[in-house]
Amino acid sequence: MRALVVCGIVCFAAGLAVAGLPGLRDFLPQLLAGAVVTIEITIGGCAVAVAAALVAAMAKMYGPAPLRWLAVAYIELFRGTSALVQLFWLFYVLPHFGVLLEPMTVGIVALGLNVGAYGAEVVRGAVNAVPRGQWEATVALNMTRAQALRRVILPQAFVAMIPPWGNLFIELLKATALVSLITISDLAFRAQQLNQITFETVKIFTIVLLIYLAISSVITVGMRALEERAARGIGRGRA
Amino acid sequence: MFWDWNYAIEILPILARASIVTIQATLLGFVLAAVLGLVFAVLRMSRARWVSLPVAALVEFVRSTPLLIQIFFIFFVLPEFGITIGALTAGILALGLHYATYCSEVYRAGLENIPRGQWEASLALNLSPYHTFRDIIIPQAIPPIVPALGNYLVALFKETPLLSAIAVLELMQTAKILGSESFRYTEPITLVGLFFLVFSLAAAWLIRRVEARLSLSKV
Amino acid sequence: MTESPAPETSQPMVRFERVTKRYGSLVVLDELDLDIARNEKVAIIGPSGSGKTTVLRMLMTLEKIDGGVIHVDGEPLTHMERNGQLVRANESHLRRMRGKIGMVFQHFNLFPHMTSLGNCIEAPMRVLGLSRREAEDRARELLEMVGLRDKMGHYPSQMSGGQQQRVAIARALAMRPKVMLFDEVTSALDPELVGEVLNVIRRLGEEHDLTMLMVTHQMGFAREFADRVCFFYEGKIAEQGAPAELLGNPKEERTRQFLSAVLEAS
């Protein structure tokens, strides 16, 4: 937490210093336009990641055999290869199979699936960490497994999932820079473009790094707040 | 025809040669990350705030921003200060710095797991801080964190394709060049994907073995 | 109390027929035979590892059965008849059978993210299909009975162990089971909280028609409350009988040793 505050102060001071520099007004609007794209992809990617992680984790843990293998294949495939390879594969190879997607869609889906594969293991770990007695209580109360998961197990696992998901969201934000390599004009793309035109390399990349830092700070602070609320909802400690 | 075996076999030697660059970048980058990470971890534990706070801020900063931008930064910015380096060197520096911040967290966890009694016993034996670290603390702290470091080695390995963005002729860049020459992307990119998959799965298996060995030896 | 007319009362409520349970090579229950009559209160005692908790866990279908058959209310529990043969029961049969049984655990196992009222209405609403109002009325009545009307909005972490265990009893009763299982329900409690839980169980036995099985270390309570005490030893019932008899004048040497060890400890 202390490090975060320091970061904020450094960020603010650096921002002031850079803002004082002449010429900033020329390229800041462009960078902010790029930042909007970056944020859009981050939000979309996070949504895909959470959905993919939940589905894959449930399939891997409770699905019938074929579904289970499919989930394991997805998780291993996406964790075992690079995000960039996945992005390029969807971008360059899928069209050969007749699947034509917007670059934006490719970016959101590829990054979402990549982070979702890691997220699936987070979900699985959190579900497994719920004490066995909770499962036994649901059996004694004659609940179905779906009811037990939805009403008892997942709500408790949710709290334990928040911090690792915070890290994954930041990883996803960082990975959005890759979409600049498939022609999307996100923050990283704009930075390179401006760099080639203006040669104000230090200035541009410093501002860009600070913008990324600002977005990731928002994620960190948001997830902290969520964690505190969730912990309160569970009445803290465990029965 | 979705998949052309002849073409795949034809490009295999070219990709194999490029994979040497990938492996080079991985190993050198990780050595840098492992060493620099330990430095960060120790400095961050320093009692002098003017040391620990800036290091903490630097670590958080590097961890929170994209590796790709850091690669660009090092590649484009260092020359402005009169330091000219090749693209591969810049890439290795960026990879090393980025993963040093991850490694530093692993080291920190390892160091914090050393019981206080070990520090106190060293103090009672009048060992200098340097010798306490080198002979007492580090040898105990490192083995348990080997699997975690191994995971970051694999993660770093999987991020080397980013060096293609500054035209380092590693696997991804080579695959892209092959693709743009032949207008066939399917084979090169899929082969690159397979290469990473095989190495990552093998590494994951190895790390699990090490983990099992470690938990056995602990008793 | 809406369903089926009472079947013939001579039939036992619970019947274990040569029930065997193994963990690997360790035999926990060794061809156990045990009949429990309707509304009978049975206390199960014995040293740890004697299989006494396993009896309850198998009744609740928390453990797989390795041999033999368990009957509850005249029907096989984990088996069903098909073409005159007993085969492993499917999920719907298991769920129907589980509806007859309620269980209270040593460590309460309350849902920590729900209030005491929430704990008591969850399963009645989702499993029995009660409306929220019906479920809440039922829960309120039961929480009143266990003396926790004023704690309805409290979360488990805001209550003492004794209070949590009483909520757990109310939660189990809200499902209207015919058989109640109590698995060392006072073992995790501080000594001063044991009485409030035992009082609730005592009232339950007096005011409701319930078959009750309890694994317990509270010999005094077993003597006063139970109709019968079973002493388990190495996966078998080594001795059973009326409480005053078994606890006051045990025939078996092993029973005597166990009782004197327990007495010494307390």
TrEMBL record, chain A:
Cellular localisation: Cell inner membrane; Cell membrane
Domain annotation ABC transmembrane type-1: ranges: 35-220
UniProt topology in membrane: Multi-pass membrane protein
One GO CC annotation: ATP-binding cassette (ABC) transporter complex
A Pfam family assignment: BPD_transp_1
Annotated signal sequence range: none
GO terms of biological process kind: amino acid transport
Cross-referenced InterPro entries: AA_ABC_transptr_permease_3TM, ArtM/GltK/GlnP/TcyL/YhdX-like, Ectoine_EhuC, MetI-like, MetI-like_sf
Gene Ontology MF annotations: transmembrane transporter activity
UniProt similarity note: Belongs to the binding-protein-dependent transport system permease family. HisMQ subfamily.
Record PANTHER family: L-CYSTINE TRANSPORT SYSTEM PERMEASE PROTEIN TCYL (PTHR30614:SF0), MEMBRANE COMPONENT OF AMINO ACID ABC TRANSPORTER (PTHR30614)
Name of the molecule in the record: Amino acid ABC transporter, permease protein
High-level lineage: Bacteria, Pseudomonadati, Pseudomonadota, Alphaproteobacteria, Hyphomicrobiales
From TrEMBL, chain B:
Localization annotation: Cell inner membrane; Cell membrane
PANTHER family linked to this entry: L-CYSTINE TRANSPORT SYSTEM PERMEASE PROTEIN TCYL, MEMBRANE COMPONENT OF AMINO ACID ABC TRANSPORTER
A Pfam family it matches: BPD_transp_1
Protein name listed in UniProt: Polar amino acid ABC transporter, inner membrane subunit
SUPFAM superfamilies linked to this entry: MetI-like
Keywords: Amino-acid transport, Cell membrane, Membrane, Transmembrane, Transmembrane helix, Transport
Membrane topology: Multi-pass membrane protein
Automatic annotation (TrEMBL), chain C:
Cell cycle recorded as keyword: no
A single MF term (Gene Ontology): ABC-type amino acid transporter activity
Superkingdom classification of source: Bacteria
Start and end residues of each ABC transporter domain: 14-259
Cellular compartment(s): Cell membrane
Lineage: Bacteria, Pseudomonadati, Pseudomonadota, Alphaproteobacteria, Hyphomicrobiales
SMART domains: AAA
Family the UniProt entry places it in: Belongs to the ABC transporter superfamily.
One GO cellular component, as annotated: plasma membrane
Membrane topology term: Peripheral membrane protein
Pfam families per the UniProt record, alphabetical: ABC_tran
Protein name per Swiss-Prot or TrEMBL: Amino acid ABC transporter, ATP-binding protein
InterPro entries: AAA+_ATPase (IPR003593), ABC_ATPase_HisP-typ (IPR030679), ABC_transporter-like_ATP-bd (IPR003439), ABC_transporter-like_CS (IPR017871), Ectoine_EhuA (IPR014343), MetN_ABC_transporter-like (IPR050086), P-loop_NTPase (IPR027417)
Keywords noted in UniProt: Amino-acid transport, ATP-binding, Cell membrane, Membrane, Nucleotide-binding, Transport
